[in-house]
Design brief:
Elements: H1 8-16, H2 30-34, H3 43-47, H4 50-59, H5 67-70, H6 78-82, H7 89-101, H8 111-120, E1 149-152, H9 155-159, H10 164-176, E2 181-182, H11 193-197, H12 201-218, E3 222-225, H13 228-236, E4 246-249, H14 250-259, E5 272-275, H15 289-296, E6 302-303, H16 333-343, E7 348-351, H17 354-366, E8 374-377, H18 378-384
Parallel strand pairs: 1-2, 1-3, 3-4, 5-6, 5-7, 7-8
């Protein structure tokens, strides 16, 4: 058996990059037991052990840098939320990834993503000048001093053909309720959440500072986000860079509008619908009741609660850069989610995150369940129920 190389410098670097709670870990193994990779078979499942990976980082030992190990984590926070020592496991993973990416050793699969973000301000290979193409013929007001909210549309919904429907539905809902909002447009850059999670610290800081300067320069005070990933990073990572705004996920604002009598959904849909809690809306941000309260306002909908829900929700596997990863059929968390919904008799599986929509749609197709189950973003469902 070959001896392992121990590097105290590596351990210190991981701590500097955000993994400063590595030494809190007492190796109880609860994180590994709760990890969604334990629920599926395959090579990644066999190799990825979050407890062991943290131990290697804790000791400054080689081995954690294997791509199939280090970049398998979807940052779902199931382990972190339940850690008895309060170890910030997601930050530790980010710090370990930064040790590789910062040294110019990003996985080949991520290099085009990072390159696009450097060149275009987004990871989806979309030209900056086409960032607003999602709006089509919608009459979108520009943000200015006369607008209460700045609507920040996730890069995914700007460039992914499936996801543009979500952004358009959110605009329709806001306009129907008479919300004062505007967009900035092509000057915006990616929030950088996923890019930081994959370990490109410098890229994240450049994108984030660009956005902070832009938003503050425009006089932004309140932001509506379409994605829970943007919500989380604006709330938790932008303040130290000068980004101090009032933040709201679109579902939170819609619930407020319903409560104020400014929005209603009278059109009956007559569907059995289950809700999939996105990790970054639920475990990361603590928003569980809001989307369910909104669905209750739609006439004809029959809610179906999944067994794994709210704080115990099953990850779609799109976080932490996994939205750009390939997993073989039979090894996808999303397939388990589809099976959960079908077993409950749901006709629709709704969610409130663009990453989840893509991952669950792919899983539904791989299981050939498209005729049994419709994957829908909550904004799209609510827009269908408008008068």
């Amino acid at each position: 058996m070959e001896p392992k190389i121990v590097s105290l410098e590596m351990r210190e670097y991981i701590a500097e990059m955000g993994g400063d709670t590595l030494n809190w870990c007492m190796q109880c193994g609860l994180c590994t037991n709760l990890c969604p990779w334990r629920l599926v078979p395959g090579e990644t499942s066999e190799k990825f052990n979050i407890r062991h990976m943290q131990r290697l980082g804790q000791m400054g030992m080689e081995g954690f840098e294997d791509e199939t190990i280090l970049f398998a984590c979807s940052t779902c926070s199931m382990c972190q939320t339940n850690c008895p020592r309060g170890v910030k496991i997601v930050d530790n993973v980010r710090g370990m990834r930064a040790s590789l990416v910062g040294a110019g050793m990003a996985p080949a699969s991520l290099r085009p993503i990072l390159g696009s973000a450097h060149a275009n301000g987004n990871p989806w290979s979309g030209p900056r000048e086409k960032r607003m193409d999602w709006a089509g013929d919608l009459e979108l007001p520009s943000f200015g001093p006369d607008k209460e909210y700045f609507l920040y549309v996730c890069c995914h919904s700007c460039y992914d053909p499936r996801s543009t429907k979500t952004a358009r539905s959110i605009v329709r809902l806001l306009q129907h309720a008479g919300v004062s909002f505007g967009v900035i447009g092509t000057e915006e850059s990616c929030c950088g959440e996923s890019l930081r999670k994959v370990g490109d610290e410098e890229l994240f800081l450049n994108l984030a500072q660009s956005n902070v300067d832009l938003f503050n320069g425009k006089g932004v005070k309140k932001i509506i986000t379409t994605s829970p990933h943007c919500l989380w990073t604006f709330a938790h990572e932008y303040p130290e860079l000068g980004g101090q705004w009032e933040l709201v996920h679109y579902t939170q604002l819609l619930e407020q509008l319903v409560n104020e009598g400014k929005l209603s959904f009278p059109k009956s849909l007559q569907k059995k619908v289950a809700f999939h809690d996105p990790c970054y809306l639920g475990r990361h941000s603590g928003i569980y009741d809001t989307p369910r309260n909104l669905m209750k306002q739609v006439s004809g909908l029959t809610p179906q609660e999944l067994q794994r829900r709210e704080a115990s929700s099953l990850c779609c596997a799109g976080g932490g850069g996994r939205i750009w990863a390939e997993a073989p059929v039979g090894e996808r968390f999303g397939e388990l989610r589809i099976q959960d919904a079908v077993a409950k008799g749901a006709q629709m599986l709704a969610t409130a995150c663009p990453y989840c929509v893509n991952m669950l749609t792919d899983a539904c197709k791989s299981l050939e369940k498209q005729d049994d189950l419709e994957i829908i973003e909550l904004a799209e469902l609510l827009a269908e129920a408008l008068p």
